[in-house]
Design goal:
The complex is a heterodimer of chains A (114) and B (114). Helices cover 0% and strands 49% of the residues of chain A. Chain A has no helices and 12 strands. The termini of chain A are far apart. In chain B, the strands form 2 sheets. In chain B, strands 2, 4, 5, 6, 9, 10 and 11 form a 7-stranded mixed beta sheet that branches. In chain B, strands 1-3-8-7 form a 4-stranded antiparallel beta sheet, with no helix packed on it. Chain B has strands at residues 5-7, 10-13, 19-24, 31-37, 43-50, 53-57, 65-68, 75-79, 88-95, 104-105, 109-113. Classes of the chains: A mainly beta (114), B mainly beta (114).
C-alpha cells in the first residue's frame, strides 16, 4: 500500500536558517505529491504540490522537487521566519484510485526562534 | 475564495453519547472526506464519499461511524456512541474533478469525549 515517511520532529531553527524536512514515499503508479502546513490552532492548508517526476512545487519561499529515482519530495526553504513555525505534512495522492485521495506522513513540527 | 466550513469548532460530550459533526464542502466539488487527528499524531483517513455513497473507508471507520449528505450541501459525520478514544480533531475535506488530487480542508472540529 501507499505510505509516506517524514523525518521526526521537532525541528528547531533560528530565524534565517536553512530548512530541510525530508519526505520519502512508497506508492504504486505515479502519485501526485503535496506538502500541507498546519499553523497552531488551524486546519490543513496546501503549501505546494508536484504532479509528475522532476516537477518543482514552490510557494512562500518553500520548494520541493519530485524525485522519482529516490522516491523523495524533500521540503526546503532558504531562510525561515518565526511565522513559519507550524507542523508540516507530506502527502501523496494515488491518482490510480482517486478515492482515498491523500495518504499523510506523520508530520514534522518546525519551531523557529527569533 | 471558496472554503470548506465545519461546525462545531469544539464539542465536549459524555462517553456513550451520539455526536454529529457538520461540514459544508466547496459547492462545485464532487468528492468528500473525513480525516481525524488525535492530538499530536498523524492525520488519519476515515472515509471518502462520492455520488451519494461511501467510496472507501478505513479500518477506523467501524459501525459506530456513519456519513450522510442529506441535502446536497451539508456533509455530516455521525458517531453513534462515543468512546474516550474518539477524542480528536476531525477534518472535513472536498475535492473537484482535478486529477492532481488536491484536497481542500476545513479548520476542523475538535471532539472531546469525557
Amino acid at each position: 500500500g501507499n505510505s509516506v515517511t517524514q523525518m521526526e520532529g521537532p525541528v528547531t531553527l533560528s530565524e534565517e536558517a536553512f530548512l530541510t524536512i525530508n519526505c520519502t514515499y512508497t506508492a504504486t503508479g505515479y502519485p501526485s505529491l503535496f506538502w500541507y502546513v498546519q499553523y497552531p490552532g488551524e486546519g490543513l492548508q496546501l503549501l505546494l504540490k508536484a504532479t509528475k517526476a522532476d516537477d518543482k512545487g514552490s510557494n512562500k519561499g518553500f520548494e520541493a522537487t519530485y524525485r522519482k529515482e529516490t522516491t523523495s519530495f524533500h521540503l526546503e526553504k532558504g531562510s525561515v521566519q518565526v511565522s513559519d513555525s507550524a507542523v508540516y505534512f507530506c502527502a501523496l495522492s494515488d491518482r490510480g484510485t482517486g478515492r482515498r485521495a491523500l495518504t499523510f506522513g506523520s508530520g514534522t513540527r518546525l519551531q523557529v526562534q527569533p | 475564495e471558496p472554503e470548506v466550513t465545519q461546525t462545531p469548532s469544539h464539542q465536549v460530550t459524555q462517553m456513550g453519547q451520539e455526536v454529529i459533526l457538520r461540514c459544508v464542502p466547496i459547492s462545485n466539488h464532487l468528492y468528500f472526506y473525513w480525516y481525524r487527528q488525535i492530538l499530536g499524531q498523524k492525520v488519519e483517513f476515515l472515509v471518502s464519499f462520492y455520488n451519494n455513497e461511501i467510496s472507501e473507508k478505513s479500518e477506523i471507520f467501524d459501525d459506530q461511524f456513519s456519513v450522510e449528505r442529506p441535502d446536497g450541501s451539508n456533509f455530516t459525520l455521525k458517531i453513534r456512541s462515543t468512546k474516550l478514544e474518539d477524542s480528536a480533531m476531525y477534518f472535513c475535506a472536498s475535492k473537484d474533478r482535478d486529477a492532481t488530487g488536491e484536497l481542500f480542508f476545513g479548520e476542523g472540529s475538535r471532539l472531546t469525549v469525557l
